[in-house]
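Deliverable D5.2: sample structural annotation.
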Amino acid sequence: MAVGGLLHAEKTRQLRLKYACKPVASLAFVALGTANLWRSDAPTTLDVCLCVGLVLGAVGDVCLMLPGARWFLAGLIGFLLGHVAYAAGFFGAAPPSTALVLPALSGALLVVALLWRWWRHLGSKRFPVVAYAGTIVMMVTAAWGLARAGTDRGWWCFVAATLFALSDVAVLRERFVERSFANKAWGLPTYYAAQLLLAASIG
C-alpha cells in the first residue's frame, strides 16, 4: 500500500505524500527483517548482515528522498555500505571460488557498457557512481555464489540481488539521464520487492 501511495505521489508530484509514504515503505522491510531475526533461534552471520543491509537501505532511501547533491551522495554511500553488508553475508555463507570469475566478468562488462553510454551525463559524480556500480557487481556475484550452493534461500537472495541491480539502473537514469515517471514506475517496485525478499529470507 505504501509503495502504491509512493508511486501515486511520484506521478502527481505530491511532495508531502512522498515524504509520508517512502519512509513507511522502507520501514516495512526493516520491520520484517528485524522481526524474522528476532524470532530466529540461531541467527546466522548472513541473517545479521542482511538485517544491517536493510537498515542501511532505509537510511539511503531517506537521503535520496531529500533534494540536493549532498543528500544524493549520502544516499549513495548508504546503499553502497548496504550492498557491502549483503555481499559479506553472501560470501560468508558461500565463500568465493573460481566458478564466480565468469559471472563477475559478465556483470562487469554490462556495467562498463552502461556507464560508457551514460558517461557524459555523470559529471563530477563519476567516481562515486563507478565505485557503487562495482559494489553492485560484487553483491550480485556473491548472491549467485550462494544460489549455486543449492539452497532455496540462495536463489531467493540471487533474485533479490538482481532486482536490486535493476532498480539501481532506474535510479541512475532518473538522476543523470532523463527525469521521467517511467523510471519510478519500474524502479520502485523492483527495489521494494528486492528488499522484501531479502527481509523474508532472514531466519
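Annotation notes: The mean pLDDT is 90. The first helix runs from residue 2 to 12.
The annotation will be released with the project's public dataset once the embargo ends.
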